[in-house]
């Protein structure tokens, strides 16, 4: 039962909680998108099956009273109410889904300037790893114990400002990510939080996170863009830590 419940009772990404209802259930954005897709899909499928059965025609069968004739437009079978209904109803539905989708997207796209953030992290994607670099003037809190400073070969590094495939950031902070690619297309995706940004070679892209909107703990970072043979192994951990 828990699997069925997980499939139909979606949670919104944490940062969407202020848009379209609570973090899950009938008011959630993701749930609304899902249930309306199911409703529209069922209506279209039922209508198609009805037409396939009702208007089925075999060789030798007499023509139906509704059979179309070449060169003759069936004016007598027009229905203004139906025409208006299947034009206005989808328009209202698409408008509503657009409105509830744009609210969190606009929130994500409105990246604060560096002077208005608590921490700016330089993110460099490459085949097939994530490199994170803190500002040189940033003092690493003593509570940060999850990510050691290691190079790609696993050797300890003296400079704790740089980590690979592991990032630890403070709770109750505004974090800005300056994201770049060293080689091919990648995508920076913090799965449980719902932040996703394409990473394009020779073009810096931006993302940000208010860590006060999520709980301290461990989160996953994936590459969400096919980037080569080891794409599926391009994983990193994000730790959000409470700092005294």
Short description:
The protein has 244 residues and is of the alpha+beta class. It is built from three helices and ten strands, in the order αααββββββββββ.
What does this protein look like?
- By secondary structure, the chain is α+β, with helices and mostly antiparallel strands.
- It folds into two domains: 108 residues; 128 residues, Sandwich (Immunoglobulin-like).
- Strand 1 and strand 2 form a beta hairpin.
- The longest helix is centred in the middle third of the chain and has 30 residues.
- The radius of gyration is 26 Å and the shape is elongated.
- About 3% of the residues have low confidence.
SSE inventory with pairings:
Elements: H1 2-8, H2 29-54, H3 80-109, E1 119-126, E2 129-133, E3 162-164, E4 166-170, E5 174-181, E6 186-190, E7 195-199, E8 205-210, E9 217-223, E10 235-241
Parallel strand pairs: 1-5, 4-10
Antiparallel strand pairs: 1-2, 2-3, 5-8, 6-7, 6-9, 9-10
Helix pairs in contact: 2-3
């Amino acid at each position: 039962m828990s699997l069925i419940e997980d499939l139909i009772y979606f949670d919104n990404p944490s940062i969407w909680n202020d848009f379209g209802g609570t973090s899950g259930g009938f008011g959630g954005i993701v749930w609304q998108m899902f249930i309306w897709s199911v409703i529209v899909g069922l209506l279209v499928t039922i209508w198609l099956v009805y037409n396939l059965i009702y208007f089925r025609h075999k060789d030798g069968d007499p023509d139906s009273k509704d059979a179309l004739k070449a060169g003759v437009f069936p004016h007598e079978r027009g229905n203004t109410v139906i025409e208006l209904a299947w034009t206005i109803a989808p328009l209202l539905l698409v408008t509503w889904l657009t409105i509830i989708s744009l609210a969190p997207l606009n929130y994500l796209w409105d990246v604060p300037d560096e002077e208005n953030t608590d921490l700016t992290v330089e993110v460099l994607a490459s085949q097939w790893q994530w490199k994170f670099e803190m500002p040189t003037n940033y003092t690493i809190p003593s509570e940060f114990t999850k990510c050691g400073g290691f190079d790609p070969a696993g050797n300890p590094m003296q400079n704790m400002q740089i980590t690979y495939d592991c990032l630890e950031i403070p709770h109750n902070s505004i974090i800005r990510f300056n994201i770049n690619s060293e080689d091919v297309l990648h995508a920076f995706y913090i799965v449980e939080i719902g932040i996703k940004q394409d990473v394009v070679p020779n073009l810096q892209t931006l993302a940000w996170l208010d860590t006060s909107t999520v709980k301290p703990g461990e989160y996953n970072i994936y590459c969400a863009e096919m980037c080569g043979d080891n794409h599926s192994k391009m994983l990193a951990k994000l730790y959000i830590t409470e700092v005294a």
